[in-house]
Write a structure and sequence with these properties.
Length: about 425
Amino acid sequence: MVDNALSPHGGVLVERVASPEEAARMIHGLPRLPVREQIARECVNIAYGFFSPLVGFMGQADVDSVVRDMTLSSGYVWSIPIVLDVSGERLASVGVSVGDTVLLTHQEQPLAVLQVEEIFSYDKEFMAGQVYGTTDLAHPGVLRTHSLEDSFVAGPVTLVNPPLINPPFDEFWKTPRQLRKIFAQRGWTRVVAHQSRNVPHSGHEWLMKGAYLAAEADGILVSAVVGEKKLGDYIDEAIVLGHNRLREGGFFREDVHQTSTLLWDMRYAGPREAVFHALVRKNLGCTHHMFGRDHAGVGDYYETYAAHNIFDELPDLGIKSVLTLEWWYCPVCAGVAYEGLCGHRDQKQDLSGTFIRSIIQGGTEPEPLTLRAEVLEITGQCAEKYGFGSPFVTDAYLENRTPVMSLAAMDCTCCCET
Ligand SMILES: [Zn+2]
């Protein structure tokens, strides 16, 4: 047993992917239930073990236990309900009942087979209040919960049509098994995860460097969240390629840095989402996870370091939280300086999203101490190649981008298709 065969959450890495032969047999004659992007991403995550120990969409006992106590009914810590919501109308039209097996489809292609163990409803207001600490509909996670259909269909999921990950993401999307293999090949036994939804500026670069030192790590895993986008977000391509360029540019050595993607729709659940992020990255093989200010937060709903402090109240999760204060540009220190060290707080230049966006939008030559020229360059290239002229999400991008994930048409040897 190698040192870095770090145990996934629950002890066993879940893998539920049918072989092509099995898949063709499994889908024969099944009723089809189409699912939206979010659910499709979650099917993929369940099937490849990103969500170990989950083997499917949660039943009522698990949902209730997660909502109330942040644990699965098996006792393992889990913070975000993973549910498949379906309208009553749809259930009736597809004819889904408990005990059935249904084919979940996406992009009009087979995706996964679901064994229906339970169909139930749950108090969405209560769920939102517990998970998000608020029932304010201005909170995007609360709104998402509120918008769920009324019936939850639960049961194990088996992937029958592995997704095709389109360029440029194909190079970066790795399953937990694949990432664990990469870590083992490099001899990484202490890996610190960096969650990103941004084109990295120098503050992010130093945050990673600081956490690498603090964790005495062998490697840094950038885990870029790729999921539902809203107008004004950085386009996914720029986030992923921007991080990768930091390694290509030598700001991180080849052997200490890996960029990857996680298909996930942010819930903005602050501390609860931090726990979820830690568990998923534990499944990827990480031993540490960095948490900066207001991790996975939105507005003023959470305390600045709530996402770090929540770990003090939980049992040992097998992945450690690394607290990272802010990094800013300090003209007196003449460099990027750490909040915990620099005594010139009143003269700092925040490396805020707004400030960096002004550089990117202006197309001006940045200070190497705020945004690397290499990162600015690739961001511009991504804007042209993928962003319809913009590094930020626009209507044109939402409507016309190449999806991150596509599903191939499945040959049906049994000819049940019409
Ligand atoms: Zn200073």
